[in-house]
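Subject: Sanity check before I submit

Could someone independently write out the structure tokens for this chain? I want to compare against mine line by line before I put it in a report. The sequence has 344 residues.
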Amino acid sequence: MSYDYDLFVIGAGSGGIATARRAAEYGAKVAIAEFGRLGGTCVNRGCVPKKLMVYASHFPAQFAESRGYGWTVTPGGFDWPTLMGAVNGEVDRLNGIYQKMLDNSKVELFRHYAHFIDAHTLAVGDQRITAERILIAVGGKPVKPSSIPGIEHTITSDEIFHLPEQPKRIVILGGGYIGCEFACILHGFGSEVTQIIRADHILRGFDDDIRSQIQDTMIEHGVKILTQTEPVEITPGDNGLIVKVKGPAGEETVIADVVGLAATGRKPNLANLGLENTGVEVKEGAIAVNEFSQTAEPHIYAVGDCTDRINLTPVAIQEGRCLADSVFGGQSKLMSYEYVATAI
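---
Independent answer below. Compare away.
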């Protein structure tokens, strides 16, 4: 049977683009579908814009420190819209680079959602497209705890990069690395930050000595961390969001400046893919794959956050390259998940 493409990739994030380009280098006819921006979470809503904000948040401390080395620094103001314009301008620039990379690799881009009709056929926009092999690389999305009344009044880490004004007071729900990073970033900009965690320490899963040291340092610098505490209710008030919490000392109220940031985890973004029209198995909310990134349908593969293995950009890229090398390059490569470094 003949197909429209040798490989069709759903999702133009880090893993999807890496796989598509590497397969095309081996001579495969490749297409990729992406309704949103190119580059996935890392480029648009994660690593890149976040790191730019990290750099910007360090300047106040550096200005203060420079005085001890003989510099005279005139106190100045911080303009949030200027920073957001610069951050999103860099994201735009990187999207252009990803487009050129796909063009140079002769990978055809479809600016639509893709949905399985059957195991070899996809609905892409108003077209029906067939492929011998299909890769699912749709990434993940932030989740909000639905059990908290009023959680709809909060935003996730995806929206923080598009706030028109700097929050003066912000409540962060969650003690993972996303919540901790934004707590430090916003504190660096001068926002009053309260972080609410259910456990004794932030960063569950990291070494205990690192968790303790980072938490103590954050508190020392002025971030308020409420441990063994859970949000009970979030309601709008005249001066912002009223966050009722329950901790060891009982119930108390924290006021957030218009916005609360929910940083309570992510999950694979599998909605509306039509996986029920295939033999692909989903286990614990993630696409189940073997060591070759192969699903229960032998010609359908998945890489990156949608498999919920190690959700890091370099891991997704390497998974995709190993897949392309194995399937289209005549090599047999396995992704090694041993000794994968993580930075906060």
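---
OP: Matches mine. For the report I'm noting this point. Residues 218 and 236 are 28 Å apart (CA to CA).
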